[in-house]
Amino acid sequence: MPGEVATASDEQEAFEGPRRRARREREQRRAAAARARAIEDARREAKQKVTAAATAPKAVGRGVVRGLKLITWLIVFVAISIGLGLVLYFTPVMSVRNLVIDGVQDIPRDEVVAAVAVRTGTPLLQVDTDKVANRVANIRRVASVRVQREYPSSLRITVVERTAVAVKELPDGTHLFDRDGVDFATAPPPPGVPYLDVEQPGPRDPSTKAALAVLTALRPEVAGQVRRIAAPSVASITLTLTDGREVIWGTTDRTDEKAEKLAALLTQPGHTYDVSSPDLPTVK
Question: pTM of the entire structure?
Fold first, then answer.
């Protein structure tokens, strides 16, 4: 029993001599001190491991190294590009030495050069192509224009000239009109171009636009026979052919159908061809 064991231990201690007891107590103290040192050593070792893990530098991965290299090369590339751009912009290394003009027939080349207004030796990057195009577009005969830099030393101007589809006699001479109703020149009438008979010709005039819409819808073999087109209003358009025959067109409704019916109708003999109602065309 526990009480008996404790009594036996007390009796055993009572029989120990002073020396044996002192030795036993010293051994117990040494064992306790050894355990304490072992616990403290273990605690210090654990603390050192945690501290070393927290302060140890992390290994840099390959992906990070590649990313840093890529960023470095990008910085170098951007710096070189900026430097090259500055050289090209501020120095005559690539400057205008040749002016190439395409598409001009009736427009004098000198007139286009004057409108371009770019001095020889101007760096190409300093040339504002939009402004140059706007200046050239102000020439009456120019329908459209494109301006391009061609390195190392050329500026190309590509012009599309207006084409006369109708002419009108005015007090100061014969005026040429393109398909948009733009009065772009005063000159002798080109061969085969019909006369336009409207009150106030111009790109915003409804009668002008209606008459030109009819002319541009005609088949080539029919358009070549038209000597005059009259449009006192948008609802009463008539055509006079070179041989004197007349075409009553009416309005611009169903223009493509009327053009197709007229091409077939003109193969029949007659003087007046009425396609104002394309469902019931007539010949008189």
Answer: 0.67
